[in-house]
Amino acid sequence: MTERISKLRKISVEIEPTLSIERALIETQFYKENLDKYPVPILRALNFLEICKKKTIYIGEDELIVGERGPKPKAVPTFPELTCHSAEDLNILNKRELQRYTISQEDIKRYEEEVIPFWSGRTQRERIFSHVPQEWRDAYESGLFTEFMEQRAPGHTALDGKIYKFGMLDFKRQIREHLDSLDFLNDPEATDKQEQLRAMDISCDAVILFAERHALLAEKMAADLQKELESKYDATGNSKADESIRRASDRRIQELRKIAEVCRWIPANAPRNLHEALQMYWFVHLGTITELNGWDAMNPGHLDQHLAPFYEKEIAEGTLTRDEAKELISCFWIKVNNHPAPPKVGITARESGTYNDFTNINIGGVKPDGTDGSSEISYIILEVIDELHILQPGSSIHISSRTPDRFLLAGCEVIRKGYGYPSVFNADAYIQEMVRQGKSLQDAREGGCSGCIEVGAFGKEAYLLTGYLNVPKILEVTLNNGVDPVGGKQVGLKTGEAADFKNFDELYDAFIKQLNYITDLKIRVSNYIDRMFAKYAPATFLSVVIEDCIKKGKDYYNGGPRYNTNYIQCTGLGTVTDSLAAIKWHVFEKQTVTMDKLMKAVANNFSGEEILRQRIINKTPFFGNDNDYADSIAVRVYEDLYRAIEGKPNTKGESFHLNMLSTTCHVYFGKVTGATPNGRLAGLSISDGTSPSQGADTHGPTAVIKSLGKLDQIKSGGTLLNLRFLPSLVKSNSDLVKLASLIRSYFSMNGHHIQFNIVDTETLRDAQKNPGEYRDLLVRMAGYSDYFNDMNRDLQEEIISRTENGQL
Amino acid sequence: MSLIFDIKRYSINDGPGIRLTIFFKGCPLNCIWCHNPEGISTKREKLYNRQKCINCKSCVAKCPNSALAMEYDDISTDANFCINCGECTEACPTGALGISGEELSAEQIMKEIKKETIVFDQSEGGVTFCGGEPLIHRNMLMELLDRCGELRIHRAVDTCLFASEEVVREVAGNCELILADLKHMDPQKHKEFTGQTNELILSNIRMLAGEGYNFTVRIPLIEGVNADEENIKATAEFLASLPGAEERKVELLPYHNVGIGKHSRLGTKYNPLNIPMNKPSPEKISRCISIFKELEIEATAK
Questions:
Q1: A725-759 pLDDT, tens per residue?
Q2: Which residues are CB-neighbours of B179 under 8 A, at least 6 positions away?
Q3: Mind giving me the DSSP string for B12-78?
Q4: Contact at CB, B56 and A618, closer than 8 angstroms
Q5: Which residues, other chains included, contact A565 with Cβ-Cβ below 8 Å and sequence gap of 6+?
Q6: A454 an active-site residue?
Q7: For site-directed labelling of A121, which of A243, A463, A642, B119 has its Cα 20 to 30 A away?
Q8: Bridge-based pairing state of the strands A753-758 and A722-725
Q9: Which of A614, A729, A808 sits opposite B54 (nearest CB)?
Q10: pLDDT in tens, A92-112
Q11: A710: exposed, middle or buried (C-beta count within 10 Å: 0-12, 13-18, 19+)?
C-alpha cells in the first residue's frame, strides 16, 4: 500500500458518518420556488442541476479520484422528497448505538424550521401510505413482508460499458436526435417523451457542471499551493522551505492540475485513459446517488472488463505502470467507502441495519462474446481488496466454466483471509437465468450481480427488488387459521384450524393458499408504488446511462430500460422446510406427537416442552444434509414460491420474478415470528437466503451444496448460500484447491452463489467481549460484509449460530 | 453387512481431492493414542455425551432391562444388564446417548458414496476406507472396491497393515492408493504402544514396495512415543532401503489429544498406562522432515 493510500484509507475508516442537511436545504428552497412551474421530469432535473450547482465541492488532501455526495467524506444527505425524517428521527440517528449518523442540534433545528414544514404531506412515503389498503397495512405491520420503496427509491442497478465509450455530450446529441424525431401528430405520448428527454438533457448538463466545479476547485487549490510555495522563496530564488516539502508541493500541484484536466474532459467526453475512466464512472455514480437514494447505491458492474482496454493500451504505450494503476483503483475503492448508506428508520432500519450501501463490484465472469473476462486488472483488483479490506465496496468473483483455475484460486486466497468477500457467483448459471427471463444472450453475458445476489442485464435493465417475504411467518399464520399469533390480528385467509388438517397435503395446500394471498397483496401495493415513482420521482439522470431510455423517451422508472423486472425476495426456506418436515415426520408419519400438542408447545414457545423440542431438533430430517426427505419439501416450497410470484404482471408490461435472499431481514423477521415447529424459539433469526437453518446442516459442506443443488435455481433471479468454515479448514494451499473444487462442484449443479465466513466461534465470542481489539473484524452477513462490531447483538448471534464446518 | 461407525464428507486429509471417508469398526491394534477409540471394538457400543444431556431421564424410563440409572446428573449403564438394544438412544431426545456402529449393506454404503460423485469429479477426489481397520472387513471391502472401480471412483485404503500378506495384496491390487500407517520401528515398543509387534506390518510394507503398489506412509508423530531421533532415523532408513524409495511419500500426523473426549463418551479410559504423550514442537516436526529429506524421501506434516 502506498503512503497516499494508507493515509486516505485511515481517514475513510476512522471518520464517523454524519448527516448533511445541505441537499435538503437546496432542494427545499428550489421546490418552494419552482414546484408548480414545470412538469415533474423537468422539475426533478432542474432540482438535480440546482444541487450540482450549489453543493459544497470537496477535494481532499492526496486524493486522485475526486468527488463526494456530501460536503465531505461520509457526510450523508437526506432525501426529504421521499421520506422526510422528523426531528425525533434525526435525534435517534444522532444517538443510536449502531449505525449512528451524527448531526448537530443546530442542524436539527434548521431542518425542523426549513425542511420539515414544507415536505409535510408532500413526501412520497406519505403518498404511498395514504393509499395502501388496510389488509396490506395489517400484514405489513405483522412482519409478513417488507416494502423496499417506502424510504428509498428503487435501484439495484449497475452499468455496462457505454460510459467508457460515450461522454455526456454524446448522450446530449442522442437526446437531441430523439427530440427532433418526436411525432406529435401520431404519437399520443410525444409530449411526455419530450418532457422526459429535455429533463435527461438537463441532467447531462448538471453532471458536466458538477465536474467543472471540481476542475475549478482543483485549479484554485493548485494556484494557492503555488502561491504559498512562492512566498517561501526569497528574492534570490533560494528556497526557504525544506527541499522535501517543496518537492511534495510541486508534486501535488501537478496532481491537482491533472485532476482539473481530467474533470474538464470527462464526463463531457468519453475517457481516454484509466484515470479518466475511473473518474468518469465516479461522477456518474455520484450523479445517480445524488438525484435519488436508490437501494444499492450504484455499481460499475464488470469493472475489470471496463478498465482492461485502458490499462492494456497505457501499459503498451508506457504511459502507466502497474503500480500507478493499482493506486488509482485503490483511490476509487476508498471513494466508495466514503459513502455510507442513506439512513433508514423504523422497520426499514431493522431489515437492513448497516452502513454498507451494497455496491458490489464484479470481477472475472465472461465477456459479451462469451470468452473469459478475467485479465491482469482482475488480479490487481483482488490485491486492492486484500490490502485495503474495508467495508465498501463489496466485491464478487464470477466463475464460469471458462474461468481459469488461477483466477478462482486467487479469489480463494482473499476469501481465506476471512473478510467475507469476495463472494462467488456462477456466471454460467445467471446467464441462463437471464436468458430464461427473455434477455438476449449478449445482454445476459454483460450482466451480473449488483447488491447482494440479485442479477440483471447491466446498463439495460431496471430490476426492482420490492421487499422481503417472511415465508416461515406465512406458515405460522396458516397454522393459526389466518391469525398472526404474535399480534393477534387476522392477517391471512381462514384456511382452517391446524388440528383439523387430516394429512400433510391438506396443511400444505392451506399454506399455499395463504402464500398466494399474501404475495398478491404485496404485489398490488408494489405496483402502486412503482407508478408513484414513475409519476413523482423519475430518475432523469440514471435514465441517461441506461440503455433504451433515450430511444424510448421514457424514464428508468417508467419502462424506459430495455428490460423491466420486479422481484420479491423470499426468506427462510430452511426454517419453513424444517418446520414442514417436523410436522410431516412427527405428527403425520411417526405420530410421536399430536398436532394439538405440537401447536400448544409452539404457542408457548416450547416452555415446559424441552424434551419435545430436542426430539424435533435432533430426530427430524432437516434441509441441508443431502437427505431427500427434507430436500424434497424444500424443492416443493421453492417451486410453489416460484409459481406464486413468477409472471405476475408489473406496471411495465413485464413481470415479477422470484429471488431468494435476506440481507439482514431474516433477523428482523425472526423477531416478529413466534416459535416455529422446527424447534426454533420465538424471536430468534429465521434462516437466511437459501441456506439451511442455523445449525441444521450436520453433514458437512458437500451435503449442503447437494441439497441446494436440488433446487432448480435457474428459475430464480438469485439464491444465497452462506457457509462458515473454521480457519483450519483452509490452512494449506492444497486446502484452498479443495475449497475451489467445492465451489466448482456447487456450480456444476447450477448453484447461483456461495460465500464464506472463515472464522471460529471463539474469535467471535472474544470479539463480543473485547470489541476494541477487533475493530477490523469483517464478517459476511448475507450478500455483503459488515464490521462485526457494527452489528447488533441479534445479528452477531445469528452468525455465531451458523454451523461451523471444521475438521480435526 | 459391515459395522460402520462414521461416514465423513468433505474429508480433505485422507488422500487426493475431496474425499468421502468410510470408517469400519474393529481394529486388531489398540494404540494408546487412538483418536477413534470407538473404532477399536468390533461390536456396537454405546456413547454418552454428557454435554448434550438435559437430564430428562427418557432413556432410564425406556430401558427394557433397567440397566440405566441417573446418578449425579450423569447417566450410568450397568454393563451386566445392557444388551445394546438401542432403545435408550431412540428415546434420547438430544442425541446425548448414541450407538456407535451401524450394520450397513454394500448397497447402503454405495448409495452414500454415489452422492458425492460430483464432488469427486470436480476435486479429483474419491472414497477412502479407514477405521478401525478396513482390512478385517475383507469381503465387504473388496465388494466396495470393485463397485467403486466400476464407477471409476478413486479408491484409497487407510490401513495399519496388520493383516495377512494375501489380504494386503488383494486390497492393494484393487485400489489406487494405500495409506499405510507406520507407528514404530522397534518391535517391542510397537507392542507396548499398540498391543502387537510390527514384524507383519513391516513385511507388508516391504511387499507393497517390492511389488510396486502405490502407497503413502503415514506416521502419527507423538512426542514420548515415536518422535525421537532414533526412531525417525530408523524409519527413514527402512523406507529408503525399499524399492521405489525415491517416489515414496511420507505424511507426518502430529499428535492431538482428541481421543480423550471420545474415551470419556465410551466410558473407557484414555492412555491407561499414563505414558506421557505430547504434541511435537514445530522445530521437532521440521527436524523429522529433514531426517527424511537427508535420505531423499519427501515428508510433509499435516
A1: 989 889 899 999 999 999 999 999 999 999 999 99
A2: B14, B15, B128, B130, B156, B157, B158, B159, B215, B216, B218, B251
A3: -SSSSSSEEEEEES--S---TT-S-GGGTSSS-EEEE-GGG-----HHHHH-TT--EEEETTEEEE-
A4: no
A5: A437, A456, A461, A462, A463, A464, A650, A654, A655, A656, A657, A717
A6: yes
A7: A463
A8: parallel
A9: A614
A10: 999 988 889 999 999 999 999
A11: middle
pLDDT of A351 strictly over 70: no
C-alpha cell at A593: 406427537
Q: Taking every pair of C-alpha atoms in chain B, what is the biggest distance, in angstroms?
A: 63
Q: How far apart are CA B300 and CA B302, in angstroms?
A: 7
Give pLDDT tens digits for B95-120: 999 999 999 999 999 999 999 999 99
Size of interface A-B (CB pairs under 8 A): 78
C-alpha cell at A607: 416452555
Q: How far apart are CA B257 and CA B222, in angstroms?
A: 10
* Three-class DSSP category at B251: strand
| Secondary structure in 3-state letters for B63-84 | CCCCCEEEECCEEEECCCCCCC
Sorted by sequence, the CB contacts under 8 Å of residue B104 that are 6+ apart come out as: B1, B2, B3, B4
Q: Cα–Cα distance between A620 and A677 in angstroms, integer?
A: 11
Residue B118 to residue A611, Cβ atoms within 8 A: no
Using CA atoms, how far apart are residues A545 and A288, in angstroms rounded to an integer?
10
Local confidence band at A808 (pLDDT 50, 70, 90 cut-offs): very low
8-state DSSP, A183: -
CB within 8 A of A276, min separation 6: which ones? A262, A265, A266
Which class for A605: exposed (0-12), middle (13-18), buried (19 or more C-beta within 10 A)? middle
Angle at which helices B138-150 and B165-172 cross, to 10°: 20
Banded pLDDT at A539 (limits 50, 70, 90): very high
| CB proximity list for A253: less than 8 A, separation 6 or greater | A222, A225, A226, A229
Please give the Cα distance from A297 to A356 (Å, whole number).
Answer: 9
Give the single-character DSSP code of A443. H
Contacts of A453 (CB under 8 A, 6+ apart): A423, A425, A659, A660, A661, A689, A718, A719, A720, A752, A753, A783
Q: Which residue shows C-alpha cell 454498507?
A: A356
Nearest partner of A25 among A89, A108, A88, A104, judged by Cα: A108
Question: How many Cβ atoms sit within 10 Å of the Cβ of residue A90?
Answer: 24
CATH number for the region B45-100 comes to 3.30.70.20
Residues in contact with B50: Cβ distance below 8 Å, sequence separation at least 6, in sequence order? B74, B96, B264
Contact (Cβ atoms closer than 8 angstroms) between residue A304 and residue A373: yes
Q: Is A263 marked active-site? A: no
Q: What is the number of other CB atoms lying within 10 angstroms of the CB of residue B274?
A: 9
pTM over 0.90: yes
Give the closest of A619, A738, A805 to B18, CB-based. Answer: A738
Q: Which helix (H) or strand (E) holds B300?
A: strand B298-301
- The ipTM assigned to this model is 0.94
Instruction: Using an 8 Å CB-CB cutoff, list residues of chain A that contact chain B.
Output: 610-615, 617-619, 626, 699-703, 705-706, 709, 729, 734-735, 737-738, 741-742, 744-745, 748-749, 805, 807-808
Confidence at residue A432, expressed as pLDDT on a 0 to 100 scale: 98
Do B2-42+102-301 and B45-100 share a fold? no
Domain positions in chain B: 2-42+102-301, 45-100
| Chain B nearest-CA residue for A748 | B118
pLDDT > 90 fraction of chain B, expressed in percent and rounded: 83
Q: Which fold has domain B2-42+102-301?
A: TIM Barrel (3.20.20)
Q: Comparing C-alpha atoms, which of A770, A767, A5 is closest to residue A779?
A: A767
Quick one: DSSP state of residue B134?
A: G
Pairwise CA distance, residues A587 & A566, whole Å: 38
User: Which residue, A806, A804, A807, A756, is CA-closest to A778?
Assistant: A756
